[in-house]
Specification:
Number of helices of chain B: 5
CATH superfamily of chain B: P-loop containing nucleotide triphosphate hydrolases
Oligomer: heterodimer
Number of helices of chain A: 8
Strand order of the largest sheet of chain B: 4-5-1-6-7-8
Order of helices and strands of chain B: EHEEEEHEHEHEH
Strand order of the largest sheet of chain A: 2-1-3
Largest sheet of chain A: 3 strands, antiparallel
Number of domains of chain B: 1
Radius of gyration of chain B: 16 Å
Largest interface: A-B, 33 and 37 residues
Shape of chain B: globular
Distance between the termini of chain B: 32 Å
Distance between the termini of chain A: 33 Å
Strand content of chain B: 15-25%
């Protein structure tokens, strides 16, 4: 359900989380006026508030947990999605660096990241400064990226997508 | 420049069909009439290899299809030595596809000096609609915890080997992995 809602409005994925929807439910049961059973728990808010890692935030470190089914992707998303997943399969990366590292437009990558996250293929953790694990964000990588020339696999990608 | 991808997997998984679906040329094959128990599965079988080509401008990517029968497994090593990546094609409707995965995966991980990026393509998924693709995840999960490189924990993708669109989509994923691997430092294999 969450994924479907997010696809309708990819830029607004954080507003559609299941946990938030739960919080909008009335605090009392309409027919009796009694508090909902969950509210009896003192830790209700702690349990029900979405964890930070649940909201997509491109400042956070993205971990790829699984690949989407490639054959079900729309053709215009196929390359960006494959490259994003390939990059993240090498290691976690801060969200806002993904498009720069791949040399793709931000507007092509961001909806892909939103959809991958909404479909449960990405896990978010920490912020850039907190995550030493995201080693692939080093400037050296970006330099290599900017000086690279198309290799045979880039050409194969281009050929397969024509 | 010539680069090579090896299509590997058990008999009847769809390696030859997948290579045919994506090749720009008529596939050079070594199909012969099956004279053993494979004859009950299909009329012909590959005995040496299949070869298809995706032609690029000045370069080309050769797609090798390895024979699936164990008695031709010496061909796997010959073809693996020349390949830069592996597409492991598994029949999801087989009696024990996870055992097939384990057998091939273990063989591939035995190549300690040269572990190649790997992608798993599952065929015949429509034949067993009740069987979840998660069964492969349970096999791969411990490896992911231990290592997580592309050889140890390959992506698992469903595809119809007869469908050019499906094979292409999975090959796009593999090409993206190879492209990124050339540009960034690959995660070292810790297994």
């Amino acid at each position: 359900m969450r994924a479907v809602l997010s696809r309708r409005n990819p830029g607004d994925a954080t507003l559609t989380s299941r946990s938030q929807a739960t919080l909008r439910e009335p605090a009392t049961m309409a027919h009796s006026g009694l508090p909902r059973p969950r509210d009896l728990s003192g830790s209700f808010l702690v349990e029900e508030l979405p964890p930070d890692g649940d909201r997509f935030d491109e400042r956070k470190v993205l971990h790829l947990t699984s690949w989407p089914s490639m054959r079900e992707l729309p053709p215009d998303r196929l390359m960006a999605c494959a490259r994003v997943c390939a990059l993240l399969s090498l290691g976690p990366s801060v969200g806002f660096l993904v498009h720069r590292r791949l040399g793709l437009p931000r507007e092509a990558v961001l909806p892909v990241l939103h959809t991958l996250h909404a479909d449960g293929h990405l896990r978010l953790a920490g912020t850039e400064g907190q995550q030493t694990e995201a080693t692939d964000t080093s400037p050296a990588d970006l330099d290599r990226e900017s000086t690279r020339r198309p290799n045979v696999w880039t050409k194969l990608l281009a050929k397969l997508l024509t | 420049m010539e680069s090579r991808i090896l299509f590997l997997g058990p008999v009847g998984a769809g390696k030859t069909t997948a290579v045919r679906a994506i090749s720009d040329i008529d596939v050079v094959d070594t199909e012969v009439r099956a004279s053993d128990e494979v004859g009950q599965l299909k009329a012909t079988t590959t005995v040496a290899m299949d070869m298809g080509v995706v032609q690029l401008d000045d370069d080309r990517v050769v797609l090798y299809g390895a024979p699936g029968q164990d008695r031709f497994d010496f061909m796997w090593e010959i073809l693996l030595e020349q390949s830069e990546a592996v597409m492991l094609v598994l029949d999801h409707s087989a009696a024990d596809p996870v055992a097939d995965l384990a057998r091939y995966h273990t063989s591939l991980l035995r190549q300690r000096e040269r572990r190649l990026p790997l992608m798993i393509g599952l065929t015949h998924t429509d034949c067993v609609p009740g069987r979840s693709l998660d069964i492969y995840e349970s096999y791969l999960r411990p490896l992911k915890a231990r290592c997580g490189c592309m050889a140890c924990t390959p992506p698992v993708q469903a595809m119809d080997a007869r469908s050019r669109t499906d094979v292409r989509a999975v090959l796009v994923a593999l090409a993206a992995v190879l492209d990124v691997a050339q540009r960034f430092t690959m995660k070292p294999c810790l297994a």
